[in-house]
Amino acid sequence: MLKVTNVSKNYGKIKAVNNLSFEVDKGEIFGLLGLNGAGKTTTFRMILGLIDDYSGEITLNGKKIDYSITDKIGFLTEERSLLTKLTVLEQIIYYGVLKSMDKKIIEKKLDYWLKVFEITEYKNRKIKELSKGNQQKIQFISAIINDPELLILDEPFSGLDPLNVELFKKVIIDLKNKGTSIIFSSHRMEHVELFCDRLVVLVKGKSVLSGYLKDIKKDYKKKNIYVKGDIDIDKIKLCKGVENITKQKDEYIISITSEEYTNSIFKEISKYQNITKFSVEDPSLNEIFINTVGENYEK
Fold this sequence. Notes:
A six-stranded mixed beta sheet has the order 6-7-8-3-9-10. A four-stranded antiparallel beta sheet has the order 2-1-4-5, covered by helices on one side. Strands 12-13-11-14 form a four-stranded antiparallel beta sheet. The radius of gyration is 23 Å and the shape is globular. The chain is of the alpha/beta class. α6 (about 160-175) links the parallel β7 and β8 (about 180-185). The chain contains eleven helices and 14 strands. The two termini are about 35 Å apart. The protein has two domains: about 1-215, P-loop containing nucleotide triphosphate hydrolases (Rossmann fold, 3-Layer(aba) Sandwich), CATH 3.40.50.300; about 220-280, ACT domain (Alpha-Beta Plaits, 2-Layer Sandwich), CATH 3.30.70.260. α3 crosses α4 (about 105-115) and α3 (about 90-100) packs parallel to α5.
């Protein structure tokens, strides 16, 4: 288990991380979200032991993170950090040795992952000769070659086509099921919703939203009503609690400020003919993220 307790980090007068606390259990995918500059990268660097002058405590399985512990951590960076003049084999051996691995074991594991990612023919090709998507696969392999107990994934689907996104998803779920603790960071909220049961959202280094995703959605007051049929939008907009109405394909999305207005809006809409759908749903994580970050960003 990773445990981050009351961690703060300043760069001069700038508070990059402000009293941050969260835990990531064994076999859990945990979302760490925020705009660029929110403090995610600083948090990753502290977890990796690259920054040690911070207040608070970070432990992995009860032990303070130092270079003996970082061998058990994998990190897929948002920016590619591959040495493009090396071959795939040379690159992975380089990373594996840094993680105190034996070269023969590294090559054996590399052969396995090249097969999983369907790129066995690139083993002795130089990194610079690979497409962006295949470079991303090699970057991913470099992060998991040491069978990490903790894996940090920062925008893991960057540069991937839809087929390879599905392949990456399967690998991530398999790692989770084998007990790897994973921190998942992405600006694509639909991916976060797919993987993460729990998450924390940072604004200017401070947690402004955290907990189980299902509870966050349940507690969020704003809801969306999906309606199919012929309605008078101008009249519905006058109903108490209605914040906005948009049309998406063949249905209307009525955004309301609170679920308490559902019944009165239903009574109004039931007056119309040919209503084939009336469904009250939680907002997407993307909506919650935008509203929460927006409300806290100017504070």
